[in-house]
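User: quick one, fold this
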Amino acid sequence: MNIIKRVIGFVLFIPFIFFYSYMLGPILKAILVPGGIILLWLILGPREGYKAIKKAFIER
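Assistant:
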């Protein structure tokens, strides 16, 4: 019985990890990163938000 539970666990776990790592992860990054930048811009206002984003992406 224990071996059957393990096999079922692997059969469910491996596809989920593949789906999240290679499909859902990049989609979430494409949505959440720009959304976070826009939210920062809305909180700080146009001028300060632009300065914070510019400061974050400029290499020193």
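User: anything notable?
Assistant: Residues 21 and 42 are 31 Å apart (CA to CA).
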